[in-house]
Amino acid sequence: MPRFRQRTLSIVPSSPKLLTLALLGAAALPAAAAPTTAPIVGAPSAETVAVQLRDAALAGHDMAYSWVSELTTRFGPRPAGSDNEHQAAQWAAARLKALGFDNVHIESFPITAWVRGAEAGELIAPTRQPLVLAALGESPPTPTQGLEGEVVVFASLAELQAAQPGSLAGRVALVANRMVRTQDGEGYIAAVGARIEGPAAAARAGAIAFLMRSVGTDSHRIAHTGTTRYVAGKVPLPCFALSAPDAEQLERLAALGLSPRVHLYSAASYVSDAHSQDVIADVRGTLKSEEFVLLAAHLDSWDQGTGAIDDGAGTAIITAAAKLIRDLPHRPKRTVRVVLYGSEEIAQPVKPFGDFGGYAYANNHASELARHVLAGESDSGTDRIYALGLPGAVRRGAFADAVQRVLGPLGIIPAAAPRDGGADVAPIAEAGVPVFALNQDSSRYFDIHHTSDDTLDKVDRVQLEQNVAAWAALIWLAADSDVNFRGPAVPGPAER
Question: Chain-wide mean pLDDT for the chain?
Answer without folding.
Answer: 90
